[in-house]
Design brief:
alpha+beta; two-stranded antiparallel ribbon; 17% helix
Amino acid sequence: MAFSGSILKTSEETFDFICTSCAEDNLIKEGLKYCVECQKYCCKDCLTSHRRFALLKGHTFLDNSSVKPQGQPRSLPAFPTKQCSQHIGKIMDMFCKTHDVVCCYVCVAEDHV
């Protein structure tokens, strides 16, 4: 019996990034992209499905093919994912030394110049 690109959780095959949705269904597929808004890794099939829905079309996908986790648990992303509470859809990826806070780029432009 052949598998169509997915592996049951009992497999010994490992990936740097695992598709979050498939893992919830006890399948292990390689996560090729990371959806910032959903905070989930997506395999090829889930990525295609994700892009079909109007509400999800504006989501930001990060390519993780060149990103390798370094000593992190596999469930944590290797890049910033926390969203700003003041600016919907913006990722908190900046640090203001003056105010000692992490914020998004809009916060930096408005309040941290």
